[in-house]
Amino acid sequence: MKYFNSVIKLLPACAMVFLCHFPENAAAQSTSKGWQNLFDGKTLQGWKSVGGKAPYTVEDGVIVGRMTKGTPNSFLFTEKEYGDFILELDIKLEGDQTNSGVQTRSHFDPSANGGKGRVYGRQVEIDPSARAWSGGIYDEARRGWLYPLDLNEKAKSAYKADQYNHVRIEAIGDETRTWINGVPVAYVVDTIDAKGFIGLQVHSIPDAQDGKKVYFKNIKIQTANLKKQDFPQEVYIVNLKPNDLSSAEKKAGYNLLFNGKNSDGWRSVKGDNFPSKGWVIKNGEISVLKSDGAESTNGGDIITKDEYAVFDLSFEFKLTPGANSGVKYFVTLKEKTAGSAIGLEFQVLDDERHPDAKLGRDGNRTLASLYDLITSNRDARARRPIGEWNRGRVVVTADNQVTHYLNGVKMVSYVRGSKEFKDIVAISKYKGWENFGEAPTGHILLQDHGDNVSFRSIKIKKVK
């Protein structure tokens, strides 16, 4: 024994590994610098299949999921739940007609879907299609898209087709941040689900994709002493906490236009004070009350006290059935009008029930359109049901490029003052106002159109 111990002391560290006892749970064995392997390279120990019936196997040190016709989305879930973590793994898909994803802090409801069960929770998307939303964040079987890559178009080229892509996910506190091949992609602040399972998805498919594979390898996790990786300030943050600014948003220069408590920063278009009737601030919402459905006949429009030139404006709105309102920008109050004040308008409307959706030209009075000028993207998936909160965004750059977003999806893009812009103004209801929409600065306006509509999380970043 004395001789054997002496020999052991002389062995190099690498050889000592073969004399050590492997951990009983090989699926969560420790590795270097605080990382743990979630996959032992040989078995699916520590994992379980839920949802659809697509099979998962281990081949040459890789988890392989096979796309299977006739089955809903399938998932391989960790048996253990995780709260705060940093997860890294490599993923490869065959083909470009489907997608995959990584579930984070997710759950399984066995009673849902007629007893077949349903997975729900935040998913980091892997999308090899032309849409290119890899690294975006989707809320599976619940709220839909939280962070489409229209919000970070520079990251669309990060994914590489038909090869392994390195994915990094940080889920720390209320924040989820993602990277694809080292490129920062998505940033979401969300209070739902403080912990849950991690899952690997094989998506449901059209029959032609039957048998194609999804590959997962090098799956490792950190759960202690977590250190956030740097994330660029210019990448937009989706913050789902009402009337909140995260520390990162504050650092990037965003300010709340509505504090959730009172009318500070707002006034009536008719005077220096906030309207004494027609508007109510309650439960963190600023709401225009229903009257007769006409423009500005009750409380009237309200505007910011400050004016803005180059900016990034975000807001949430909730419509009641049949309601009409709008968020206007570059409002100067110089135009003479008996109704609502004049300005460029992000249309806020119940398209199904309000008659204005059928007026104008080619649908240019529908939700998220540049009202009476440019029709919005008609993608139905970008729209939340009436009675739920929708997220609007208007971005104006120094070269007068203006973009509307609805729930993160790009809806309208145009250039103020361009020939194309002037041409559409000339055939619109605004043709009688000289240089309509071209003022260098203006107020932000919330419209009173006689219907009950609520707003919150109104924030803006002035861009120099």
How would you summarize the topology of this molecule?
Layout: H1 2-10, H2 13-16, E1 36-37, E2 47-51, E3 56-59, E4 62-66, E5 74-78, E6 85-93, E7 100-109, E8 118-126, E9 137-140, E10 144-147, E11 165-172, E12 175-180, E13 183-189, E14 197-202, E15 213-222, E16 238-239, H3 247-252, E17 254-256, E18 266-268, E19 279-282, E20 285-288, E21 302-304, E22 311-319, E23 324-331, E24 344-349, E25 390-396, E26 401-406, E27 409-415, H4 419-425, E28 443-446, E29 453-462
Parallel strand pairs: 13-16
Antiparallel strand pairs: 1-15, 2-5, 3-4, 4-15, 5-14, 6-11, 6-15, 7-8, 7-14, 8-9, 9-10, 11-12, 12-13, 17-29, 18-21, 19-20, 20-29, 21-28, 22-25, 22-29, 23-24, 23-28, 25-26, 26-27
CATH topology of the largest domain: Jelly Rolls
What structural class do you assign from the helix and strand content? Answer: mainly beta
What is the number of strand segments? Answer: 29
Largest beta-sheet details: 9 strands, mixed
Shape: elongated
How would you concisely characterize the structure shown here?
This protein is mainly β.
Explain what you see.
- The protein has 464 residues and is mainly beta.
- The protein folds into two domains: 22-222, Jelly Rolls (Sandwich), CATH 2.60.120; 242-462, Exo-inulinase, domain 1 (Jelly Rolls, Sandwich), CATH 2.60.120.560.
- The chain has four helices and 29 strands.
- It has helices at 2-10, 13-16, 247-252, 419-425; strands spanning 36-37, 47-51, 56-59, 62-66, 74-78, 85-93, 100-109, 118-126, 137-140, 144-147, 165-172, 175-180, 183-189, 197-202, 213-222, 238-239, 254-256, 266-268, 279-282, 285-288, 302-304, 311-319, 324-331, 344-349, 390-396, 401-406, 409-415, 443-446, 453-462.
- Strands 1, 3, 4, 6, 11, 12, 13, 15 and 16 form a nine-stranded mixed β-sheet that branches. Strands 17, 19, 20, 22, 25, 26, 27 and 29 form an eight-stranded antiparallel β-sheet that branches. A seven-stranded antiparallel β-sheet has the order 2-5-14-7-8-9-10, with no helix packed on it.
- It is elongated.
- It starts with a helix and ends with a strand.
